[in-house]
Amino acid sequence: MNQSKKSIDWSNLGFSYVETDLRFSARWRDGVWGDGELIPSADMAVHEGSPVLHYAQACFEGLKAQTAPNGDVLLFRPDLNCQRMGRTTERLLMPTVPESLFMRGVESVVRADGAGSPPHGSGASLYIRPFLIGVGENLGLRPAPEYEFRVFVSPVGPYYKGGGLSLINLAVIDLDRAAPKGLGAFKAAANYAGGLLATQMAQSLGAQEALYLDPAEHRFLEEAGSANIVLKMKDGSMVTPESESILPSVTRRSVMTLASDVLGLSVSERPVDFLAEVDDIDEFAACGTAAVISPVGKIRMADHWYHFHGDGEMIGPTTQKLYDLLTEIQRGEREDTFGWTRAV
Length: 344
Ligand SMILES: Cc1ncc(COP(=O)(O)O)c(C=O)c1O
Known about the structure:
The protein is of the alpha+beta class. It folds into two domains: 5-156, Aminotransferase class 4, branched-chain amino acid transferase, N-terminal domain (D-amino Acid Aminotransferase, Chain A, domain 1, 2-Layer Sandwich), CATH 3.30.470; 168-330, D-amino Acid Aminotransferase, subunit A, domain 2 (D-amino Acid Aminotransferase, Chain A, domain 2, Alpha-Beta Barrel), CATH 3.20.10.10.
């Protein structure tokens, strides 16, 4: 690592970029993927006409590696990230990154950085960012002539300030993240540029992130800026919003499986009419690779704060149990009966 491992204060890392020694790069040209290689430079040189620069022909993924007590470095469900990237590339008319190339990229960077992977018990993890951009000489609106697939890693701590399992606030802003049949369900870079202003507006109201309602009627819960939503209802069931315009989260899928198969709760994915159902919600949580499971203490909508988890003072017991189950599997502290982790 450029920053020596010894100089990193693992337990106080936030979610920001720390440069590591090597990244993986592969090119697609004339319909064929190159083998790809590990390279030292964090900089990229691309043609000024590259479609990524003008038309946002770009997509990415995000996953984490964690160090187990026995020293193994574990990836969490990387096959699902690869599949999701495949759906996104199809939507953006980009070439599919074959699973063998995706996994080689991810594993070779993690292995190259192995000495720099956060130690077990430090609370930090190694965030992995695979991405694909359309490059090459171009002017008109059409798919790029060439593509670059890259993977870099960065050690990270908690995504939200406060760290670990702490209560966050969300705010419903008068902006949409996605259109009904737009890009919401895909991890397209363009979605995130559009969300920057909403996040800033939410933060100015005292929230960490924006909470989006459905773009057609502004009634049904969608997701937060970088996390899906899971709800423990007062009747004891777990519900997650169903929508065609949210990103299908790997974490959400895992959390819902843990809720049904380990905690024995009744689970459903269905439209959730926020204001009509708000009084039936006991625990509200945001989940994602970066957010893990973040309990939501309160949500602001139209000048009113709605409270969850009691009065927003404590973390609900179901959210706590799901957080423990998920993170113990991810860190290799609990038997992985689902076969979700993969040692690098
Ligand atoms: C918009 C959005 N929703 C949800 C998620 C969570 O998805 P995952 O659990 O696959 O990280 C992310 C990414 O972290 C995201 O960017």
